[in-house]
Structures are given as C-alpha cells and as structure tokens.
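Hi Prof. W.,

I finally got the Beta-galactosidase prediction working! I wasn't sure whether to trim anything, so I left the full sequence exactly as given:
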Amino acid sequence: MNYSSKIFFLLCLCFQLLHAQSKEIKFLSGTDSEHTKEWDFWINGGRKSGNWDKIQVPSQWEQQGFGSYNYGRDYVTYGKNFKFNDEVGLYKHKFLVPNSWKGKSVNIVFEGSMTDTEVKINGKLAGAIHQGAFYEFKYDISDKLNFGKENILEVKVSKMSADKSVNNAERLADYWILGGIFRPVYLEITPKENISSTSIDAKADGTFRSNIHLKGIEAVNNLKVELFDAKNILIGESQIKIEKGDTLKQIQFSVKNPKLWTAETPNLYKAKFSLKKNKKNIYDTEEKFGFRTIEIRKGDGIYINGTKIKMKGINRHVWWPETGRAVSKNIDLMDVQLIKEMNMNAVRCSHYPPNKSFLKACDSLGLYVLDELAGWQKKYSTEVGKKLVREMVTKDANHPSIIFWSNGNEGGHNFDLDTEFAKYDVSNRPVIHAHHKPGNAFNGIDCNHYEDYYSTKTILEGENIYMPTEFLHAQDDGGGGTSLADYWELHWNSKKGAGGFIWAFADEGLVRTDFNNQIDVNAINAPDGVVGPHREKEGSFYAIREIYSPVKIDIKTISNDFNGNIPVENRYHFTNLNECQFEWKLIKFKTPYSSESGFDVLQKGKAESPNIKPTEKGNINLNLPQNWKESQALLLTATDPFGKEIYTWTWKISSNNEISKQFQKTLTKEFPVSVAENDSLFILKSEEKEFSIGKKNGLLKSVILDKKGKKMTFRNGPVFVNGKTELSSIKSFAEGKNQIIEVSYKNGNKIIWKLNPDGILELNYEYALSGDYPFAGVSFDYPENYVISAKWLGKGPYHVWKNRTQGQTYNVWHNLKNSTRTGSSPWIYPEFKGYYDNVSWLQLDTAEGKITIGTKEEKMFVRLFDFYGIYGAEGFPKLPSGNISFLDTIPPLGTVLAFNINDKTESLGPESELNHLNGTFKRTLYFYFGLPDLDDEKKQFTMPKENILTD
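And this is what came out:
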C-alpha cells in the first residue's frame, strides 16, 4: 500500500463513530470556535475583498479580518438612506468520501450560517437557498458525491437576506449584525433506512411517548425503544411493527417512579431507538430526556410536575468578544454555571435559538429555558417562518430544559406560526409571545416588558399570569440587581406572579479587528449585561445572587441578645433545606496597618440542616460557642445538595466604637498638642504635624506631615452636601491634653475639630434635615490622580446604591485604583469609584502617604471620587460636592428606561425612593495621616492564617 493510499485508508477510519449501525459524523469544519478548520474564502466588499484567501470555519468573517461591521440599529441611527453592507462571501472546501458510503444516505448539515446560504456539491446545487441565520438545515447529497474520490463543497453566504421579512426579523435588530458560517458544518452518514428525528414527551407520571420520523423504510419491520437511567440501567422498553413506506410512528408506554427533571433536580434519562430487520439491528440512535410535566393554569401560575414555579431568569445572547456568535461548548457551559451561580433558575434565549451545547448544559445543570424564534420587533413571513419553526423545534424538541417556545419578540410575532410548534413537538409545550405592550397576553401569560413597580402591582391583580420576559434593563450600572429585591418580593408573594427575565446577561462587546482589537459596545446600545464581555462580574451579579438565594435570610444585624437562631425562609420549589449544608465561622478582621487584607478564623462549625419544606419558614440553630461575642464578625455559608455555594452572609459583631478604640491603641506614642493662629487660620500642632483650619468656614485647609513641610493634599472639608452653610461662630480652646476648635453655623450645623496627643485628628459634626434627599453627610477634596489603592473594613468589594446594597459582605477589602466605568472598557472589576457600604475604617494609599479614617458610629457610606451609574446626555445620578464623602445616606439608581432629567427613580419601588429624612445626624470621624510606629502592632498578628472572603 503506497503512502497516499495509507492516508486515504486512515481518513476513512476516522469517518466512523464509536457505535456501529449508528449515525456517523464527519466534520467538514471545526467543531466549535475553539476548534476550527481552514477553508478557502473570497468576499465581495470591505476588508480583504476581491481576492481568494483563507478563513477559519466556524467563524464570523468580520472577526477573521474580512468585510465591514454593522450594528443592527444603524438604520435607525443614520436614517432611511442608510444601507447595510450587503456582503457576499464564497467558501470552498475539498473533502474525501470513502467507497464504504455507497448505498448510504449522506446529509450535509449546517448548524448556523448568516444569512442566505447557497450550497453546491461538485458544482451541483444541494437544494434551495436557505434563509435564516440561526437555524440548523441540511441537504441530502447522496446523489452528488464522488465516492472514493475528492469532492468540492462551495458555499455562497449573503450577510443580508434576499427576503425582506428575514432582514426585518433578524438583521434590523438591536445587536451586532455579523456574517459567515458561524456554527459547525458536517456530514451525517446513515443507512438508507433510518430515523430522521424523534420528538419525546415524558411526563411526571412516568408516561413516555415519542413521535419517531422514519426515512427510506423498505425491509425494516420492527422499531424498539429502550429507556436507561443515569447508571445505564434499563428501566423500560417497548417495540412496534413498522411497514414499508412508513414515515411516522408513535410509541407510548410507562415506567414506575421516575426521578423527575426540574431546574433543582436535573435528572436525565436516555432513550435508545433501534430499527430492526428480523431481530438484527439496522440502525440505532440515542436521545437524552427528562420526565417532567409543564402546565399553565390560567389565572393561577406556571406548574412543573404539579408545583408552581417562579422564574428567576435572565436574557442571554450567544456571544464572545473575539468570535461573535461563533462560540464553544466551554463558553456555553461557563454561561450556564454563571447563571446558576446567581441563584437563577431560568434563561431566555434572546432572540434566536442557541447552540446545542448550551441546551445540553441547561439540561444537565438545571435551567428552565425559553427557546425563541427570531423576530426582533418585526416578524418572519408565514412562508419562511414555517420552515424555520420546523427546523428550530425539530432540533431542540427533546431538551427537557425547554419549557416554552417563544414566537418572536416585542411585536415580532407572526400569529400564523403559533400552531406550527406543536406539529414537531409531541409534548405540545406552551407557546408565548415576548412583547413590550400591555394587552397582548397569550396562552394566559402576560409577558409585557419594562413595567415599573407600581404598574407591575396592577398587572398582578389582573386576570393573567405575569412573567415579563424583559425587565430591569441593565445598561451601564443600572438595572440588573438595582430595585430587584422589590420586584422579586412582588412576584414571590403574588398568586399570579411568575417571576421574569432581567435584560441582560453579558455586555455585547465586540473585539474590532478593524480598530486594533479594541472592544466596542456600540456606545449605549450594547453594554446591557450584569457581566462584561469576557464574563467579568459586575456588582449586580452579587446583588442578584443574594436576592435570588433560595435560602432567604433577612437578618441585618446581630444584637446583644442573639441566641444563635437565624430565621430563614425556604424559597426552593422542590428542595427541603435539610438537603443543604450550613457552616459558620467566627472571625477577627485584619487591622488598618496590617500588611494583609481579609480576616483570621477564630472558630468554625457546622449547623444542623433544618427540616424546612419548600416555601415554608423556620430557623437555623447555629449552636455557637458561649464566647462568640469575643469575635468581630460571624459568617454563615449555605451549600446546595450538589456541593455548590448558595451564598455567604456576614454580620459584624464588634461595634465601630469598639473597632475605633482598637485603632487608637495602635498609636502608642504621644506628643503635646498646641494651637497657633493668624488672620485666616487656626493651626493645630502635634510633634511635626500641622492641621490648618480656616477661620471663615471652619474647614480643613492643609495638612503638613513634618518639619520639612511635606504636605498631604486632603482638604476643603467637612462640606455639608446639602444646603449652604454660613459661619456663626468659631473658637479655639484646650480640653485636657486635647486642643479643640468649635465651629457653629447659622443653620444649626456644628463641627468640632479635636487634636489628640496620639496624633489623631478627630472630627465631630452634626446637621439637621427634613425632607427627601439623594444623599446626606459631608465631603472633602483629594486629588484622585494621587491615589494608589483603598483598603477598608466594611461591605465590599463592590460599590453599592441605595436600592442595590445586596451582595456585598463584611471584610477587610483592598482595591487597586482603576478607572472602570461599568459596562465599558476597561472591564476591571470591582470598580474603584463609587459608594461603599457600612465602612468602619478606610485607608487610602496615596503618592503622599497613607490617609486612615475611622468612624465611631454605625452605617457609614464612603463615596470615592466622581462616577455615574448611567451615562446618557448627562450622568446619573448627580453627585455630592467634593470627591471623598462620608455619608449617612446615598442615592438610588434607576435604569436606562426608568429615569428622567430630574433623576426620579421612585417608580421602581420603595427601595428606589429618595431618602426620607427628618432629624439630627451626628458622626465622629478619626483621621490619621501617615504611618504610626508599628513595633507593638506586629505582636497582634500571630494567629494562624485562614482565608480572605472572596467570591
């Protein structure tokens, strides 16, 4: 055998699958975006056009350096005269076909090609041009192949469709419009007599039913179905006779007590379908499935296996920055894991059917899926739509995770297609319309988009189940977790509330190969995710995780009479909390001048898992040791039945007053203090340090650290962030070893500066407010460009808003300064700037030295520098004066669809109202500039290291 013959023989062997008499697969392209193959390519316009070149398949041709970029809303942005780049790409690929395929059926399969696709084999058309970008299609090419020889595949792909309705439904949409063969291409080789597809309906009572589509039946006379559990043990079987020419047979039988599929219990089984001729297997195929029953009880709710469920869902585009909509099974798996990590149970495939590997991951890990026919505000024609419904449902029908078919989005519903889904889905799943206008309920479910909190309450009192398929639009830092707690409580406690789907999972940022690989989110159009383009976690990610925790714990603080009992509500639908695990830790935080962040674990233990049934309430008894109050904080971690962390809650035990005393004990040296004055300043002095206080307003004007005059540019405070202050009186006097400057203002506000012998500059202030305010407290100035990092004891590591404090936990956190603006480059999280919650002390590491600030009272927010939650014509919400603030209240954040120029957010619910203030507010701040002598401090860090609380 010569060399070329050996190669050909080996290639023929590679064409075979592991299972004899089963479908054989030969990939002509790569298997996904991580495993591609090189084909010949030519494009008619844009970059690298007019010459034959090489391209990786599957891919988007823009990401391979060809053609031009379009965002789908460009026609809106640029007007009626705008024309999309109607690029056409030509692909060529040669492949060998062995003689052993003679007499078999050979299909060429395209899992996804954008958009109109013409296929030729050896110069002959494989069939009609396929129109529609997101759908699997195939051609029988058995009669066009040269067996035992090389064959030529030619594919012509048009980025825009010749069918106007396809462009309206898919291309003129609010997302990136790309071109090319973006999903795998392969050959399916089967016997002439085969099973072309199956559709399975497996009910919770154990009834198994399947429609089995047959092709080429001549001599086969028997069809057998066998069911196997996860351990490959046979649990049931049945067989029926078939006759020549049969194209469809239905088989039905029952098994006893199957393990049911839900998002909480994703139990999967395998069905093996066999064609037999005289007891000999001619053809086998297998499908995974789950036993579960879906019901819509009109005027009541959505039921899975007889239990009402509520959707904790999110919208997901198929997306990766470098490869566009060409993705891999690793990306699909990662996305399902991230959605599950947020304690979500559902995903909407917006706005088109996804990859097979994504649905397989939803099946195996457990997510309820809305599988959607494309139709972004405009619909397919009936002629095209019927074909695409058939392709979509035929491919996806056996996934137990899919509980709804969605017929288009926001007006992109062709009502003539509503009855088409059931033709290919024997389980007859419910069909919904994902719409954005009231009064368009379908099948008893209202899916209206972007209602506010109060209109949601009204809808929930109506006749239909309410399940918004889009709500809380998460552009920039708005939406997502913002206001979610209020919305979720509405749905959880309402009979007809079915939950909903946040817009959206990931920022649709595209690596622009025409702009030095910068990531482009198309301005305000695409930064809509709760994770970044590469799945960088934003603050909303963690807020959602706490709000949607199926172990619901509301306790905010630990009181002195705490007895170790934690009230808890079980918000699982199918899982008893005795199936979960609970572990507590008692900890001590690192101090400001420790070289480390995080905490030391003093004691830990496991709590007995309580017997609390789904939707019921009870208590977790931690059985803490008697000396638990000697610790500074308590951690509680809940773990689900699969060993995955649900959430970790933290509660501070030590008060800020106690923590500040420890801070002062660090400073062991004392120096006499004095005061000097001139026409404009009081100058407080301690050893080498000087603090100048303006006589006209009582504000800190300068800080000098040593005799050489080294300055710390922390100044111009405390400025009260509400109203104007006018000096009433200012005086200086001694109080024991301390030196005091007392300032009074005409509006009743007061501040007292006190310099202590240990070098701490103490600030006491008070102010009175009555009314609604976005924020309250005081501010200082410090040059942002001098700051290196921030370390603090408090909630973190992400910034918060009044209506999104969830998801952040107590620890000593340390963030390096960055300039991240949520939703845009660079995606470095956590963001450095923002409001931080429940800060006990903060230390800024700067080019001038360290600045350490502590507080005596509880519940202090710290604002770091200038930032906005939503970026439009103006930034929202408005900021306090100064650029470092110590606040008693902070503002809520709206969404891009729920704010106006007056920054009003109250329509989003109680948490989103301004702060209703009435009274006097007092706070003590402690400032230390520079580093103390740490010889005694080092003795405090001899305990064993445990961990840093992270995600």
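The chain has ten helices and 62 strands. Does that look reasonable to you?

Thanks,
D.
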